[in-house]
Amino acid sequence: MIIITRASITDAELDAIRERIEQRGMRTHLSRGVERTIIGCIGDESLLAEVPLRSMPGVEDVVPVLKPYKLASREFAAALSVVRVGDDPSRPGRVAAFGGPAIAIIAGPCSVEGPDMLRETAEAVRDAGGVMLRGGAFKPRTSPYAFQGLGASALKMLADVRRTTGMPVVTEVMDPRQIDDVAEHADMLQVGARNMQNFSLLSELGRVKRPVLLKRGLSATIKELLMAAEYIMAQGNRDVVLCERGIRTFEVATRNTLDVAAVPVLKRETHLPVIVDPSHAGGVADLVAPLSFAAIAAGADGLIVEVHPDPANALSDGDQSLSLDGFRELMRRLAPFAAAAGRSLGTSADSARAGAAA
Ligand code: PEP
Ligand code: MN
Predict the structure, then answer these.
(1) 82 Cα–ligand 1 center, Å
(2) 206 and 316 inside one domain
(3) Cα distance between residue 162 and residue 143, in whole Å
């Protein structure tokens, strides 16, 4: 359940309500908005049956939350969340904001293949208006004989390019044992589709002080995606960005089926930002632009796009990778769609301001 408090509530009244709830063995979560503050209660609600919450000073209303996800639910937050990436005072650089007024574009190679291609791609992405660099170091490949990524050396390359371009970086973490190393080098940790229900990985990521990009599983429902986010949030990490990346259906004309409807459904159900991966959804470069337009029209807060300086020779996912020119062209064509959705692209206002503040 959530407790909606009066605008006039004092800190002492707020503390008294929380104490009363926690004494009964429940956890509380505070979300302060401009207009209202919400106390979320997590645990067995029957424990509160005898507590006269409604008559406690400062309480406006008590509302049950029937959804199985609590911390991720829209009801639990006083306002939509903005997840800031790269906002670490010990590491100067730009900040990318997800869920604010600007649509944030992440782009980069499927896999980090070497320092030169990474730097060339990063500079092109940044100059075209991308706010973050992606690049796989540990790759979840279907075949054990396929290129598995450069591993730890790719993490170093990402950190180097982060320093020279100022752009925050995101990379996938496949195993709890990789978390510390990835968190040291990257600004955001990606959970890939194949690991969306790796609950021990999710719980460990809940204890890390880095935002998490959580991709929807290949055959996961929207509810399962939100429950996966709940696993991370339940351990204390509230900075989660959700990613719709296509699901497996009977259709084979595309690599996956982009579930465009997932975007407005998620925006209704959760306060977390939602982005779309048109590259893994469509599986071919030609589909990246139309799927990106659809994502923005549906209300996505950002995109994650695969870009490679030489897609024909990429070590993974070349078919779906845009060339550097292709990415520049995409960014030009996205602008009117962003404007039609009442948003700007990440280069303007919000992210630039965020960057200046860093
Ligand atoms: C990726 O982003 O490179 C990737 C492997 O994506 P997914 O987990 O969505 O398949
Ligand atoms: Mn890929």
Answers:
(1) 23
(2) yes
(3) 30
